[in-house]
Amino acid sequence: MSETPAYRRLPDDQRIVLTGIGMTSPLGDDLPTYRAALLAGRSGVSPYEIRYVGKTLAGICRYEATKYQSRKDVRRGTRAGSIGIFCANQAVREAGIDTASWDPSRVGVYVGVTEHGNVETENEVYELSQFNYDTKFWSHHHNPRTVANNPAGEIALNMGITGPHYSVGAACAAGNAGLIQGAQMLRLGDCDLAIAGGISESIHTFGIFASFASQGALATHEDPTKASRPFDTARNGIVVAEGGCLYVLERLSDAKRRGARILGELAGYAINTDATDFVLPNPERQAECVRLALKRAGLEPNRIGIVSTHATGTSSGDAQECRALREVFVDCGRTAFNNTKSFIGHAMGAAGALELAGNLPSFEDGICHATINVDDLDPECALDGLVLNHPREVGKPDYILNNSFGMLGINSVVIIARYDG
Predict the structure, then answer these.
(1) Residue 131 predicted with pLDDT over 70
(2) How many CB atoms lie within 10 A of CB 126?
(3) HEC secondary structure over 371-410
């Protein structure tokens, strides 16, 4: 590999940068608040009760839904759409973009989702049950609420965007996949500005809780703040969370032209497939995905300052990912590893985008936030450089690598570089 990373040899109109972040999470609705909670070691998991399942635990968002929507629009639309609208508007505002002067036909919306429509269908069936299942009480809003492009479409409607919009279904790799799609469309000239990332309304569907519980993969703990515990020997499953994180992506040439503040540059990415099991991960394919992203960026593993792990808190998944990481990051003593799900739970389609956001401030403050709730590290999850329970000063990293994997064997990796002009 060349000493000059591959992405830096691209012309400015092919280099992709992040210029805005909009988010909602169980730890806050803006990046400074979210980051402060991560550095303080504060969990966002709390008690939660949902129809048929009863008392459980979840990561719950409390954003101001009517900040960018009327109450009528909130009722008419979906929770996923509402999360997307909040995040998209915040991202564009943070990027310093005046929507009154943009060309809406040159804006693309690419929203990663794990699933969509389950919440709305469950709610309709429940409401129908109150009327002896008479279908004349079925809502005429159901179809537009449940089509797969709904979250991206609601954003486009809300913001008057007339360029391309669609949702990217990529299971729990969707946050990274949305970013990758946005970058690809910018490079193809399909749009001049991309709103991209991932969202999830998953805590509002009882089915996801029931399914994880039936698999023995739903986390439990007498203290909700300690329930999400990736890498710990006592980990016992996933804490379901909702959330959203959307980025404004631009070509470097356009960002420079308007004097934008650049939060980071997309250095490399990769998506591949295990093709071995519906649920169980394949560490060989995961390692291949990481290596491919590094190759495309033109980087050796030891150039990565922080690796944000996907680890969900399941017994097999965490160990398999750590095995993959040990294969790739050999003799990488300066590389730190952490996990964000230990704080907020698993935000499904939003997970990768939120986890990346929580690490981006490291480019400026030189601190790697910890993985919390690790009282007894599982030897199978041991990684040199794993940051446990307390944040660590690591110096300003040049690169952050973000892992995000999902069911049906989809793997995604994104590498973000510190932009230095």
Answers:
(1) yes
(2) 12
(3) ECCCCCECHHHCCCCECECCCEECCCCCEEEEEEEEHHHE
Q: What mean pLDDT comes out for the span 19-34?
A: 98
Close Cβ partners of 318 (under 8 Å, ≥ 6 residues apart): 230, 231, 235, 311, 312, 378, 380, 381
- Write down the pLDDT at residue 3: 78
Pairing of strands 193-200, 107-113: parallel
Tell me how far apart the alpha carbons of residues 301 and 344 are, in angstroms, rounded to a whole number.
28
Q: Which helix (H) or strand (E) holds 46?
A: strand 45-50
Q: Is 207 exposed, middle or buried (0-12, 13-18, 19+ CB in 10 A)?
A: middle
Spacing of C-alpha 129 from chain mean position: 35
What contacts 125, CB < 8 A, 6 or more positions away? none
For residue 172, the 8-state DSSP code is G
C-alpha separations of 275 from 168, 279, 285, 299, 413 in Å: 19, 10, 9, 27, 17
Please state, in angstroms and rounded to a whole number, the distance separating the CA atoms of residues 163 and 156. 8
- Phi, psi (deg, nearest 5) at residue 220: -135, 150
Q: Are 309 and 133 in contact (CB under 8 A)?
A: no
Band (1; pLDDT cuts 50, 70, 90): very low
Q: Which of 63, 56, 65, 57 is nearest to 27 (CA)?
A: 63
Residue among 265, 296, 258 at smallest CA distance from 360 = 265
Domains of the chain, CATH where assigned: 16-257 (3.40.47.10), 268-417 (3.40.47.10)
Nearest to 92 by CA among 193, 220, 216: 193
pLDDT at 2 over 70: no
DSSP 8-class letter at 138? S
pLDDT tens, position by position, 349-363:
999 999 999 999 999
User: What is the C-alpha to C-alpha distance for residues 284 and 282, in angstroms, rounded to an integer?
Assistant: 6
